[in-house]
Design a protein that fits this description.
Blueprint: H1 23-30, H2 34-42, H3 60-76, H4 80-105
Helix pairs in contact: 3-4
Length: 106
């Protein structure tokens, strides 16, 4: 007999923007090796707080950025620098849209 409560499904974790995550936390959440996240940091895609890897802390925003960059790399085959550029442009578009909404609402 199949029990619906035991069926696999989508699992998600709600992370607040101000949550501090370690390098290991980000690697676990993204299911990637440390070297993958380090490459994103080296390319400037991610900007952790802290002077060395053992002290690095990532915000929830940085985790979202990491997952988006990894998805761009996987789905579109872009390198880390290309993913970073795409994310920067998408963020700029969103910032401009928000600014436009503010102007239209005034």
């Amino acid at each position: 007999m199949h029990n619906e409560n035991n069926s696999p499904g989508i699992v998600g974790i709600l992370i607040e923007e101000h949550t501090e995550l370690t390098l290991a936390d980000v690697c676990g959440a993204c299911t990637v090796e440390v070297s993958t996240i380090v490459a994103l940091v080296d390319e400037g895609v991610l900007e952790p707080v802290g002077s060395d890897r053992q002290q690095w802390r990532f915000s929830g925003t940085q985790l979202r950025r990491a997952t988006a960059a990894l998805r761009l790399q996987k789905d579109l085959g872009v390198n880390a620098a290309g993913a970073g550029l795409a994310l920067d442009l998408l963020e700029e578009i969103e910032r401009l849209r928000a600014q436009l909404r503010g102007i239209e609402g005034a």
